[in-house]
Design a protein that fits this description.
By secondary structure, the chain is α+β, with helices and mostly antiparallel strands. It has a single domain, classed as Replication Fork Single-Stranded DNA Binding Protein (Alpha-Beta Complex). Helix content is 24%, strand content 21%. The chain is built from 8 helices and 8 strands; from the N terminus they run E-H-H-E-E-E-H-E-E-H-E-E-H-H-H-H. Strands 1, 2, 3, 4, 5, 6, 7 and 8 form an 8-stranded antiparallel β-sheet that branches. Bound molecules: zinc ion. The site of zinc ion (ZN) has 7 residues, from helix 3.
Length: 245
């Protein structure tokens, strides 16, 4: 079983390898409002849906639900718990409820400016528009490059793919052509998603302030030397992933 829905089966390996050989600092396309990059979309299938947990204000970064891969997902358990041991909002609901698994979509594009295949992580709502554009140009992806652009901030954030006009193609044609016949491996998506093990999830939850031992019955041991451990790259560091749902 895979952490991604509908592509590949390397999830368990990805969970153990924590990013594998992928350079996570470079793998993600991150844009600020108004920024854009020129990209090539290799095929109409180069994206995957997955279920994500995250709690922006508690510092739990967007990460895949591992229940999808048949593992114990304590983020699901923490999100579903509504007993007395956790912090409540003004309506008496657990503040952790908002961490429930939500559908997100990870795209792979050739970044024509960096000359490499990179990924972009989108909410379901952001992804719908991008997929519509990809489908619209599905027949012409071998000849058309796009400007991938972010507009707006916070709740207003949206992303668009706009075809580059033929007379502008010459600026990117050389890099574009290098990727003829190149395929995006499923492994890229799995590695970029940085699925945690159950134990790693429990540790992150504890660091975020969730009563892991009392609610989940898991004893987290954090060695002093682990406190400064590199936890990898956040998939989505500047948006509240809960906002679109
Ligand atoms: Zn889960």
């Amino acid at each position: 079983m895979s952490i991604i829905m509908g592509r590949g089966d390397e999830a368990k390996k990805a969970i153990e390898s924590k990013g594998g050989n992928l350079d996570l600092k470079k793998a993600f396309i991150r844009l600020k409002a108004g920024q854009s990059r020129k990209v090539r979309v290799l095929t109409p299938q180069d994206y995957v849906a997955y279920k994500a947990h995250g709690h922006y204000s508690k510092g739990v970064y967007t990460q895949p639900c591992i229940a999808v891969a048949g593992e114990r997902c304590v983020l699901c358990e923490a999100a579903n718990y509504d007993g007395d041991l956790v912090e409540k909002d003004k309506d008496g609901k657990s503040v952790w409820n908002q961490m429930y698994a939500k559908k997100r979509v990870l795209f792979a594009f050739v970044d024509l400016e960096e000359d490499m295949i990179r990924v972009f992580d989108a909410t379901k709502a952001q992804a719908d528009g991008l997929i519509a554009t990809i489908d619209e140009y599905a027949e012409d992806l071998d000849s058309i490059a796009f400007t991938f652009k972010r507009t707006g901030d916070k709740q207003e954030t949206s992303y668009t793919l706009a075809p580059i006009l033929p007379n502008k193609m010459k600026e990117v044609q050389e890099v574009f052509d290098k990727y003829n016949g190149v395929e995006v491996e499923t492994k890229l998506f799995e590695e970029a998603l940085q699925a945690r093990t159950t134990e790693q999830q429990a540790k992150e939850l504890q660091q975020a302030g969730f009563p892991v031992k009392d609610v989940l019955g898991i004893e987290v041991k954090v060695a002093a030397s682990e406190n400064n451990e590199d936890e990898g790259e956040p998939i989505d560091e500047n948006e509240d992933p809960t906002k679109d749902f």
